Structure formats: C-alpha cells, structure tokens
C-alpha cells in the first residue's frame, strides 16, 4: 500500500485542482491519499506551521502542488517528493526547484512539454522531469446545445456565441477575445462572447467591453448565474471556442473544448501549439491580432466542411492524448516507482486507431 500525502497550495489554478481531485478519487486500491491545504485559513496556515505539521506525517510520497508546498515539504525533510506546478513555472520558480533538487529527492511533473523544456533549460535534470498531460473526464462533456442555458446567460437562439476557455489570466489575454468579438459584433450584433468569470483579469476583460461601448456583448458566466460552474457546463452554450493566449496557459480547458468537438480559433503559442495544428484541429493566426482572429471566425463560418473536419479531428485527438485513464495510469506508475526508489520511466504513448485513420499515425 502506497501512502501519498498531497500538499495543495490554496491559490492553485483550475487544472491543478481538477487533477488533484481525480488522483484522490480514482488512484486505486493499492494507494491511499490524504490532503493538506496550504494557505490562510486552511489546514496549514503558513509555511512554518506547514513544516511542523508535515514532520509529523508518515507518507511514502509527498506530492507538493505549488512552489510553497514544495518548500514546506523540503524543509520538513520529506524523503520522496513529487512537485507539480499549480501554474506555469517561470525561470525564477524553476531555479528554486533546481536548488531544492540538490538537497532532496524531488521529481517534477509537467503538464506540457513546454514546461519541461523551460525546466531543463534552467537547470532541472532531464531525468527528474516527466510530462503527464492532464486528463479529460469525457462523462462530464455535454455538447448538445442547451437553449435554456443560453437564455439564462442572456443569449438568444440566433446568437453566435464564442467561448474563451479557462481562467482569465494575463497569459490567456481574454481582453483580446473581447476586442475580436467586438469587431464581429459591429458587423453583426448576434456575435457574443462567453467567459467563465474566474481569474484575476476577468473584470479587466469585462471593462474592455464597456470601453468599447459593447457591454451587452460579453457575459461572465458565474457572475451572470450567481453560482459556481465547472468549465464543462459552459460547452452547451457555445458555438465555437476562441483561444487568445499570448503566453503559457493551462492546457486542460483547451482539451475539454477539443473533446466537446467545438470548432476552435486560436493564436499560436508554444503550449497551444502542442495541442492544435492549423486547419487540422483548429484555425490559427500567427500573431495575437483581434482583426485576424475575427477574420478566422468568418472563414470558419463560411466553410462548413472545414468546420466539421477540424472539430472531428480535435475530438479524436482529445480521446487519444487526454484520456483520464491514461493520466491516472501514469500517475500510478510514478507513485509506485518513487515509493520503491526506482528510476522513473513512464510508458510511451502508442498511437491509436483514431489517429492512424485520420492520417496522423
């Protein structure tokens, strides 16, 4: 029996929280999971309290979610530590991780190859970084259009709703989605934009619409419905997905849109390019330009066969690359190898029939 202790930073983003939830719920009979949350008003109120409490815990593996959680686990003397960034770890955070690795047995789990590359470039040994892509729970996906939900969000049946997925962060640049939709809204008032409403820049995106004198164009879903929502609940209200990332973003919201078969219009960044390919799984623009994004939306609507083909391929690749069972198997493998002090070696991805059929194998 492998005992896993999760130390979760209170400010963790959606992708880290969802992955942690899956691991605690579905890890299997050979493992037990316990969680301590680090933050004001949580189980571990601050770093000194966290160190003292973790020294009293008995676990085979400590899974630290976030840099502060890693620091607490290292200072507490945990013999085996897995580190998962709760948001994209930049150069400063990676240098700290590399320093901790000099004193503790730490392995870094990356949700994208871009994160792994940044870590290795900044001094983290390649053998101690591993890519485990987030898993999509396909049972949560409801793609069929829901006119009742749309009406509750203030959309009509004739509106064309663009969903900007994920939390509104600086890297997600949802203000650019507002601008692009604003261009389309001038051409046709039926173009509307839907945001989840979480993230430190959600209000900034809403203010952008007000400055454009198009405040009725944008909806913050949670504020509009006055309740907490999961990203999957927004899918039946959307007609297409618009990704305006200008920096590294979490990939799970994008994978969810792929699994739902939503047509995707996107900018090009390193993390997004790992998931999407122009005219194969999405329509992409070479630079984050609202005008180009708006033009791509018009191109998409003008070609129904292209819309169908990119949606179908995106859905197929989501099933291949982001299956929840695959993610859980990889985590089980890592936990088992770390607990036994073995070298970590994840099973290679084998191309499934779906990708071979579509010409990607």
Plain-language structure description:
42% of the residues lie in helices and 16% in strands. The chain has two domains: 166 residues, Glycogen Phosphorylase B (Rossmann fold), CATH 3.40.50.2000; 183 residues, Glycogen Phosphorylase B (Rossmann fold, 3-Layer(aba) Sandwich). A six-stranded parallel β-sheet has the order 2-1-3-4-5-6, with helices on both faces. The protein has 15 helices and twelve strands. Strand 3, helix 3 and strand 4 form a beta-alpha-beta unit. The chain is α/β, with parallel strands linked by helices and 361 residues long. The C terminus is likely disordered. The chain is elongated and about 60 Å long.
Query: What is the count of β-strands?
Result: 12
| Largest sheet features | 6 strands, parallel
What is the 3D shape? elongated
Which structural class is indicated by helix and strand composition? alpha/beta
Termini separation comes to: 38 Å
Tell me the CATH topology of the largest domain.
Rossmann fold
Q: How many domain regions?
A: 2
Rg calc? 21 Å
CATH class of the largest domain: Alpha Beta
- The second-level CATH architecture of the largest domain is 3-Layer(aba) Sandwich
* Low-pLDDT segments: 352-361
Element order: H for helix, E for strand: EHEHEHEHEHEHEHEHEHEHEHEHHHH
What's the assembly state of these chains?
Answer: single chain
With strands numbered from the N-terminus, the spatial order across the biggest sheet is 2-1-3-4-5-6
Helix percent reads 40-55%
Mean pLDDT: 92
Q: What is the percentage of strand-forming residues?
A: 15-25%
Determine the CATH superfamily of the largest domain: Glycogen Phosphorylase B
């Amino acid at each position: 029996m492998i005992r896993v202790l999760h130390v979760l930073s209170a400010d963790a983003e959606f992708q880290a929280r969802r992955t942690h939830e899956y691991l605690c719920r579905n890890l299997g009979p050979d493992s037990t999971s316990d969680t301590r949350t680090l933050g004001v008003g949580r189980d571990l109120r601050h770093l000194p309290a966290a160190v003292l409490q973790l020294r009293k815990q008995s676990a085979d593996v400590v899974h630290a979610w976030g840099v502060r959680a890693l620091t607490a686990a290292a200072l507490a003397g945990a013999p085996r530590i897995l580190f998962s960034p709760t948001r994209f770890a930049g150069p400063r955070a990676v240098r700290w991780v590399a320093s901790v690795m000099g004193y503790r047995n730490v392995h870094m789990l990356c949700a994208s190859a871009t994160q792994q590359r940044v870590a290795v470039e900044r001094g983290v040994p390649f053998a101690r970084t591993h890519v485990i892509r987030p898993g999509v729970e396909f049972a949560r996906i409801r793609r069929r259009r829901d006119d009742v939900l749309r009406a509750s969000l203030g959309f009509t049946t004739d509106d064309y709703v663009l969903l900007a997925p994920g939390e509104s962060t600086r890297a997600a640049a949802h203000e650019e989605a507002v601008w692009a939709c604003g261009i389309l809204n001038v051409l046709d008032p039926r173009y509307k934009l839907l945001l989840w409403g979480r993230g430190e820049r959600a209000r900034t995106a809403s203010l952008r619409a007000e400055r454009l004198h198009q405040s009725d164009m944008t909806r913050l879903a949670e504020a509009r419905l006055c309740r907490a929502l999961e990203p999957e609940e927004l899918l039946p209200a959307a007609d297409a997905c618009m990704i305006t990332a200008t920096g590294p973003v979490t990939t799970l919201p994008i994978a969810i849109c792929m699994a739902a078969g939503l047509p995707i219009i996107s900018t090009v960044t390193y993390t997004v390019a790992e998931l999407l390919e122009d005219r194969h799984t999405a329509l992409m623009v070479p630079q984050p330009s609202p005008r180009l994004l708006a033009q791509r939306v018009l191109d998409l609507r003008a070609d129904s066969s292209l819309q169908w083909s990119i949606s179908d391929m995106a859905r197929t690749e989501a099933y291949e690359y982001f299956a929840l069972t695959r993610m859980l198997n990889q985590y089980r493998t890592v936990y088992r190898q770390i607990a036994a002090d073995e070298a970590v070696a994840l099973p290679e991805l084998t191309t499934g029939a779906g990708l071979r059929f579509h010409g990607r194998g």
